[in-house]
Amino acid sequence: MTDVLNIPELPDEDDTEGLRAYLTSGISAILNDPKLQLQPNVYMNLYTSVWRLTYREKSNESARSDVPYADVIYHDLVKMLADHVQLVLEKLQSQEDSLLFEAYLTEWDQYLMAANRIDRLLNLINRHWVKRDVDEGKPDVYRIRTLHFVQWRSYLWDKISIAVIDSAQLVLEKSHGNADKTHDMLKSFASLQIDYSARTGDARTRIRESLEAPFVPEIIAHERNLENIIAARHN
């Protein structure tokens, strides 16, 4: 993971696989340690590797044409995120029920920080390749940050949400409805006016909405935008 950070120079601009591995290692380093302090020259090298790969073309014999190498970067990221999030899921599944809620929030904060950093690093992919494909109405292509959220929902949240909500209710009930006496992680729930004293469906719905608020609306907004683009093309 850290090898890329110790390389003084980029791989040669003609070394496509070397550049690809260099970028992959940098992204993996950020995913595993979102607070990692990259030296300015290292960050510039990573950004340069994105630029060189984005404006490179790869052979696509089946289509008998050239396609942007940006799609290779994108699909490398799709797999990296899936693998990373599944490891986070396994880590959370090993937590005790009473500790799961806090552990989930910690992992989410780390993941969101990484998502924002990687989104900035791959901004060139967003501006050109992703925007073009989205404007053309192609499915399963998302802005880099939104892609992080899609993978989080698919590979983690959909599989563990019920357990996380159970854990959240358990913690909230122990606070006896007084959010001021709970851990800082519960402060955001105070404004929801949840009935902490009972396991009501409404309380669970509000907890779910609060936990999904940081990522689900952005996914929904993308999906609606895509629907509008497709509808406009058929009018």
TrEMBL record:
Alphabetized InterPro entries for the sequence: Cullin_N (IPR001373), Cullin_repeat-like_dom_sf (IPR016159)
Pfam families, per database record: Cullin
Coiled coil: none
Domain of life: Eukaryota
Name of the featured protein: Cullin N-terminal domain-containing protein
GO molecular function: ubiquitin protein ligase binding
Biological process, per Gene Ontology: ubiquitin-dependent protein catabolic process
Domain Cullin N-terminal: 22-195
Family statement drawn from the similarity comment of this UniProt entry: Belongs to the cullin family.
